[in-house]
Structures are given as structure tokens and as C-alpha cells.
Design a protein that fits this description.
It is a single chain. The chain is of the alpha/beta class. The protein is built from twelve helices and twelve strands. Strands 1, 2, 3, 4, 5, 6, 7, 10, 11 and 12 form a ten-stranded mixed β-sheet that branches. The chain has a two-stranded antiparallel ribbon with strand order 8-9. Helix 1 packs parallel to helix 2 and helix 7 runs parallel beside helix 10.
């Protein structure tokens, strides 16, 4: 049986030095029915020239400005879905690499799983492959977005297993889920710009009753923060701002009430920890981001109404998933 085609979607911003190895890991995939769409977010280096040299068959969409990770991916995803033969979207960061059988293993895993939404393999640290970068992502019971198994020693593979969500650095998303979720052309929430957009997707799939998976037998490798790490203060601000928005947008009201005091205590502890490290200026970014998120909550009200209409999860099970992410 012929499997549906897949489309890799990559968002690039001044990543010329990373592109060759990234694109080679796509070209070397054993599953050949795929195309590549690259959205360049107004790079000022030679990224576009390099892409066209290494992968002339790729579709390159050049933006004159930085659209952010969320909108950049939406542009690529919407372009990919114009092709009715595309059944899977593979998201790949420019600083991530894939085993040659990554796409094939993940697509095969979706067979007989009609409610499969998002999938990832174990993702290892690119520089030290004895260390795990990610096995899954989730909203923890203190309200914080958490990367499962981050910096744990890689001793043996976990899975296959259902997880709260997957890391967008290297993941596969089914067209069936994209078509079913309520936001259509805005799959990633563009009000977030960047940071925690994949967590937002994870919560959305979970509360809708779809399944996210960790798939064993293949791996990805991630450097981490190749673009976003260039401005750590801004990233911290967006993390706390966006965390507030995605919680308000997606979670049941009772769960939000249960989380609120835990979020407050967690923020205080993080604030104090940064001050103990002598990062007094950085510590104030936390309340600044959190307050900004609260004031921005009306932006998510209509989106909250949409997700509540399609929510299909037991609140006790949701709370259980928020313990470890599986």
C-alpha cells in the first residue's frame, strides 16, 4: 500500500552555518515520498543561497521580515497542505539532525492509529549523544512547560508510549489532526510569535482526545537554541508570557484554578533562584512576562471558546498526564 507523502517544513533565520548538515539528513531519509519547504525569515546571511545550492528542489519561501517561529511554520504548513497527497508534516529545526530511517519509522508507527496527532523519537543532545535532549513535552502540575527526560543519561529507549506532547525541534504531525483541530490556517498560535508553540499544540491535541506518541527505534539529534538563544532575556520573557496564554486558552477552568497557586509558588522559587545566582536583573523578567501574559489573555478568549467546544478528555486523566507527561 502506498503511504501518503510527507512534507518537511523548516523555518530558517540566519542559520547558514547549520543548513548543509540539516538538509543532508533530509536527503538521506529512507522514506523517499517527501518534499521540503523552507521558510526564510528575512535572513541577512547567505542562508537562501546555500539552500538553493544544496537542495535546489526545495520550495523556498522568502519573507522580507522575521515572521517568528509560529507564523513561519504556518506559512510552510499551509503551503505543504495545498498538495492533497501530503498526509504528514515533518517539522525540523535547522539545528536538528535525523537518523536516516526517522521519517519511515514514524510514518509506519501511525498505521492503524487513526487518532495519532504528533509523534517524535528520542531526541539526543547533538554534541553528547549519551545525554537526552527530549522524549516528550508537557505542562507540569506547577504550570510550567517541561521537556521530558531533558539532560538525563541515555541508557535505554523508552516507548512506544502515549505522551502529553512532542518537541517541535524534530516531530511528525498527521494531516488528519491538522484538519480536525479548530484553528485551520493558524495551526501554530501566531500571537505567541515564538516559544511554547509546540506545548500549545500538545495541550490542544491532548484535550481534544487525540494521541501523541514517543516512537522508539530511531533518533533525532538537537543542538538547541541555535537561533533563539541569541537573546536569552527575550526568550525568558516570551516563555512566561506565552505560558500564561496557553494555559488560559486550553485547560479546563477547574484545572486552571488548581494550577494557579502552584504557578505562583513556582514563579517565586524561580525568581529567588535567579537572585541567588546574582541574576537580579534577569529575575524581574519573570513577573514582567507573567503580567504581560495576564493582560494578553483577552487575545485568547475566542480561541478558548473554540477549543472548549471540541474538548474530549477526563479532567482526572489530564491531571495524571501533567505529573510526568505520560
Amino acid at each position: 500500500m502506498n503511504k501518503p507523502n510527507a512534507a518537511f517544513v523548516i523555518v530558517c533565520w540566519n542559520n547558514n552555518d547549520l543548513l548543509e548538515e540539516c538538509l543532508d539528513s533530509i536527503k538521506n531519509q529512507t522514506f523517499k515520498n517527501h518534499k521540503t519547504i523552507i521558510v526564510d525569515n528575512g535572513s541577512t546571511d547567505d542562508s537562501v543561497i546555500t539552500i538553493k545550492k544544496i537542495m535546489p528542489e526545495a520550495i523556498v519561501i522568502e519573507s522580507k521580515k522575521n515572521l517568528g517561529f509560529a507564523k513561519g511554520n504556518n506559512v510552510g504548513i499551509n503551503e505543504a497542505l495545498k498538495d492533497q497527497e501530503v498526509g504528514f508534516i515533518a517539522l525540523l529545526n535547522t539545528d536538528a539532525r535525523l537518523d536516516n530511517d526517522w521519517l519511515e519509522k514514524l510514518i509506519i508507527f501511525t498505521e492503524n492509529k487513526p487518532k495519532a496527532a504528533c509523534l517524535q523519537s528520542t531526541t539526543l543532545d547533538y554534541y553528547d549523544q549519551s545525554i537526552i535532549d527530549s522524549t516528550h513535552i508537557y505542562i507540569a502540575q506547577n504550570g510550567q512547560a517541561t521537556q521530558g527526560s531533558w539532560r538525563d543519561d541515555y541508557e535505554s529507549e523508552m516507548g512506544p508510549m502515549k505522551v502529553f506532547g512532542v518537541n517541535a525541534a524534530a516531530c511528525l504531525i498527521t494531516r488528519a489532526f491538522i484538519d480536525e483541530q479548530p484553528y485551520k490556517k493558524e495551526f501554530f498560535d501566531e500571537t505567541m510569535f515564538m516559544y511554547l508553540e509546540d506545548v500549545d499544540i500538545a495541550v490542544r491535541a491532548t484535550v481534544m482526545g487525540w494521541d501523541n506518541y514517543l516512537v522508539p527505534g530511531t533518533k533525532a539529534y538537537h543542538m538547541g537554541s541555535a537561533s533563539s538563544g541569541k537573546n536569552p532575556g527575550f526568550s525568558l520573557y516570551l516563555t512566561f508570557r506565552n505560558n500564561t496564554g496557553l494555559i488560559f486558552k486550553n485547560l479546563p477552568f477547574i484545572t486552571i484554578c488548581k494550577l494557579t497557586p502552584r504557578i505562583f509558588l513556582s514563579d517565586i522559587e524561580t525568581f529567588r533562584h535567579l537572585r541567588r545566582l546574582g541574576k537580579n536583573k534577569t529575575s524581574w523578567i519573570i513577573p514582567k512576562g507573567r503580567i504581560a501574559g495576564i493582560f494578553r489573555s483577552p487575545l485568547f478568549l475566542l480561541k478558548r471558546n473554540k477549543i472548549r467546544k471540541v474538548s474530549n478528555i477526563d479532567r482526572d486523566y489530564l491531571w495524571h498526564l501533567m505529573r510526568k507527561g505520560y
